[in-house]
Structure prediction request, 993 residues.
Amino acid sequence: MKTEAKDPVVEFHDLTVSYHKKPVLWNIDMTLPKGALIGIIGPNGAGKSTLIKAAMGLLPLGSGFVRMFDRPLDKVRDRVSYVPQRESVDWDFPTSVMDVVLMGRYARLGLLSRPRKADKEMALNCLRKVGMDAYTDRQISQLSGGQQQRVFLARALAQEADLYFMDEPFAGVDAATEAAILGIMQEMTAQGKTVIVVHHDLQSAAEFFDWIILLNMRLVASGPIDKVFNNDLLQETYGGKLTVLAEVGELVKKRQIPSREKY
Amino acid sequence: MDTFFEFFSFSDPNVVAVVIGSVLLTASSAVVGTFTFLRKKALVGDAVAHSVLPGICLAFILSGSKNPLFLIIGAFVTGWISLVLIDNITTKSKIKEDSAIAIVLSVFFGIGILMLTHIQHSGNASQTGLDSFLFGKAAALVGSDLVTFGIVAVILLVTVGLFFKELKLIAFDASYARALGLPVKAIDLLLTTLTVLAVVTGIQAVGVILMAAMLITPAAAARFWTNNVKTMTMIAATMGAVSGLTGAYVSYVAPAMPTGPWIVMIISAVALLSFFIAPKRGIVSRAVSQRKLQYQIMDENLLKALFHLGEEDDDTYKGRTAEEIVEKRHFPKSRLMSSLKRLRREGFLTKKGSQWAFTEAGKLKGQRVVKLHRLWELYLSKYVKIAADHVHEDAETIEHIITPEIEAELERMLEYPEMDPHEERIPY
Amino acid sequence: MDAFYIITVSTLIAISCGILGCFLILRKMAMVGDAISHAVLPGIVLAYFITGTRDSVWMIVGAGMLGIFTTFLIEFFHKKARLQTDAAIGVTFTWLFALGIILISVFAGQVDLDQDCVLYGEIAYVPIDLWITESGQNYGPRALHISYIVLILIILFVRIGFKQLYLTTFDPAFAATVGISVSLWNYLLMGAVSMTTVASFDSVGAILVVALLVAPPATAYLLTDKFRNMLIITCVIAVVISFFGYYLAVYLDGSIAGAIVSVAGVLFILAFLFSPNNGIVFKRFMQKREAARMSRGALEKV
Prediction:
């Protein structure tokens, strides 16, 4: 079940992604609409994070390609923002909330130049949006899980992008933070920005998103929530792995086969 | 050359002692190293090795003698303290393990150097042997020293033998071992003790600075030759022994030369060789099997192309020229010719004039590849829900690696289908 | 005057090492720093042998290249031979270090280098080894000039690349998505570490330089959670350990480098135990006070 987007912001074309040579995503082919809040849903090990990492160029692609705004990623990096999983960084790192948010401005600064006053004001604005403006000078090691996630969101906002990829932003946050993050995301999409979120909780997914991608090693469905979020498709997504696909994946890894032939 | 025969005839009893000593010491540290390597604690051995220096110096200062028993006790104590410290620093502060290891290693060594230079400058005549612990001196392994170090080495080997099963299990999967009800903490403690002991025994031959190599390198090399822990231990021990023997020889030929670096050079050469040429895991072997795979893919694609040609004009066994084949699928000329010859040699093709044709075996093989290709396309579109116009590329790869088991499963799941998603007949 | 030169040189070296060390420990690459400091040895010996002097710029550059090669080799063994990282580090540096020691033995007599120098340097000779031009002008100890030049280069490097170094250290995935090359900055940092190691080699030897790379930054890390303060404290520690280390060595009549490192170790342990926000003694004290407060609260309720 696949709905193609009109005027797509992101296009995945026949994307196959391998992790340590083992294909974890097969032939993902879809287009995603502008201004939507999009949830990527699927069981553990389905390749949800892998999909957005591959989209951001953090993993090598076995085959296929991803285009954003109808151009390759390298041409539009300043319009795309990525929010990694909270656990992916060391929160003992000696840095302050303000410093982290300013990192969102780094791409726009030259090699030598330091963040200017305008950048700091901009960062403060972003912190205000996520309700963390009282914590600008706080060291990140003193933050709670929800606060850490808000800081990451503020950093992404400071990038002023048009397309956002977020890896599990709702994982392990308190109810207040969840509501705050969701509110900001809805505001962003209302402004025509596109937000793509890896999400693990089925219950809340139905309330949060207006477009759903169902993923389990392959694309099960992609489309507006009312078309996709039904028992049959969810059953198909969560109803166990495709054993043959998994076995062949192991074989590809074992034989070190190139994922596409040269001629 | 004379010294070579002199040494390897083992007529000199001193030579025998030194050889037995260094082989025993290097082999036993290699054995223990296998487990620290598998437990991913290789660099901890490095820290222990550097940390025994202050212990040795302190034992010397306190006892005033070079009796190996005191030195071993001293080394053992500081070696142990270093491990406890690393553990404490990592668990009780935000310092991560790598920094903790580096700090303990370098600071203990610094303290050791301070003590050693202090001893040297205070002009104590009997200290001259102490710096042989830095880079090792196998030739010094004679008399009572040999007995003491030898006993420790034997204790080490026997202990590993007794607890082999447990050590293997925690090295492989500590949480599983815990689930089985094994005292993981106690076994880890045992491994720690063994590591310290291995370092203590090895320093006479290799020296504290390069001792880490004796723990890490034989195990790393052995890993490339086997997947079995027991075999791996044996191989590591043998490699360690060979390098120990070389060390003894160097020490015999050039007494001024430190033995440690030579032992490490030998074992490193063995390891480098293993990284490259070991069957299956080695870099070269993997490149070779990649090449074989390339050949296989080429051959199968060629047979497939011939089968397609046969499908088109309903004459499977008709002879075709190389040009006809290239027209069907664009193979590079040289690869095509070598593949044609290879397939003829293997009895899949025959050649009449410039015409190449299937043999019975060749037809079956080509047919199977085509079948697998179409089965996989069908599987992708039916089960993986990929559009029919997107499945071909993927099947081009997968057709070459499907095993007979998966083939049977696909046939069963798809219920021996007749047509693929492109309405092409699946040949059986 | 001798004491002044020695303390100054060791302070400058310790600051250079410490600045780079702050990045190393936060990147969890302290042991790669250890590996590099060992692995540059054969490069140093060969450079001595070829140029015949110990103060050529080429030596620093050449041996520095070997440091980058080491980083590459570790990655090669890890990726191509699929050896686990810790073993890849261990195999690489022991091998190169052993090669260096053998080269020293082989060139003994032709090269003004011995094993002691490798182990703990010859900082005591700093005041003797003067830089005298052909016209007879005396510019003071050579090591002094080398060490401040290195420090200036390190400060320039960190200043120019601060944003990139900081971001690739904190969040490499994010850095990559905004278009910063993580591996380029990794190699640049390792190159800087190699250069500093080579330049410090004469004074503190190959092994003790690791202590300067790791111990002062780790101590500072325990004392603060601001990166700027971490750099400042590292520099202060560099001065303190050089000063006390020198006099400890004089008192004990032992190696100066060994004594400096010993003092650094003592400072680290003190920070580990008594740091105001991270020390274990302080933490225990706070827990006790908390427990007392709780029980008092419980009593009041009753």
